[in-house]
Design goal:
Blueprint (H helix, E strand, L loop, with lengths): L18 E11 L8 E9 L3 E5 L6 H9 L4 E10 L2 E2 L5 H6 L2 E4 L6 E5 H13 L21 H14 L10 E2 L5 H15 L3 E5 L7 H12 L7 E6 L12 E6 L2 E6 L1 H10 L2 H6 L23
Helix pairs in contact: 3-5, 5-6
Length: 303
Amino acid sequence: MTQTLSNTAAPESRTDDRALVIRDLHVVPIAERSREILRGINLTVRQGEVHAIMGRNGSGKTTLAYALMGHPAYEVTRGEVLWKGYDLLKLSPDKRSRLGIFLAFQYPTAIPGLSVASFLRTALNARSRPLDQPQSEFDPSDATRGGINMADYRRLLREKMALLKLDDSFAARYVNEGFSGGEKKRLEMLQMAVLAPHMAILDETDSGLDIDALRIVAEGVNAQLNPDLGVLLITHYQRILNYITPDRVHVLAQGQMVASGGRELALRLEEEGYAPVLLEAGLEPDFEDERKSPEPAEAPPAH
């Protein structure tokens, strides 16, 4: 049944409430509206499934992640994104989160002076507020007005840290301050575990990790997989798929989904590079075959 929300128009079409359905999504950067980055994305990811999106730098992977979460630097010019009876594109980022959407950043931000434990408790309380509850009736610091009881929170945090094999001292550290690349990504996994989303978008979780850190982060993802969690795993190389088995693999190039398949598609990309797949899709490769090159560094997008 299609749901309604004050000041939010629900979609007229019906869809699977356990599926994130992206239809004809077109996106431009606010700073350069004449440059279309995503040009008609169509994709369906159901809860309980892991979908990997692969593509070289500049293909639109991070733009897709940010557009789904409502990043203000991007504008959706056409299309719809259906989830639990709502068109996500008509909701603010906090409401998307409260509907169970989670984004793990490629470049997490440091917040000096704010402990991991305090940050996660505030995020959990904000995430748990019902969509139809007025802000005036909610106080995340008050357990009687929406906030989680401190004793319950401590138990939850200990449980999730144990799941991810994190030392208790991790909770007292300031958010991402002085963290290694692997520690930053493990904190993203801890956020995911505490918030318990129904659809997780992981933006290049493997970026910048050595093989040991990659394995630890992948184990953190695998420990959370369940029939109620859908995962959209965005990556540049197939190496993380050695640890996280996808149900489907999609290739994003030049702002379009140009191929889909099973894990064998990722292995083919590792062996042949992206050029043959683009040629089969009728697109002219605009780059040299990079299958033997090291992973290039990416500058974080402007906020």
